[in-house]
Write a structure and sequence with these properties.
about 80 residues, mainly alpha
Length: about 80
Amino acid sequence: MGSLAANLPLASFVFSLRFGGILLGSYVGGRVGGCPTEQYERFWMGFITQAAPTPALTPALTLALTPARGRGRGRRLHCA
């Protein structure tokens, strides 16, 4: 429970940032692309399920990017 409380501000920030980006990006993209209004105002509903794993992944990402305690070096996140 302590690790959840410690990561809650970061998880909330990342979730909000993703939600806002999805909302803004789908709205602007739909308008620029010439979609009907009833479609581009609702595009975000199809994409928002992608933002749901963010709170679950944030603690793992935090552990991967913060220095390891007692070892002197941080772990590195490798993307393939």
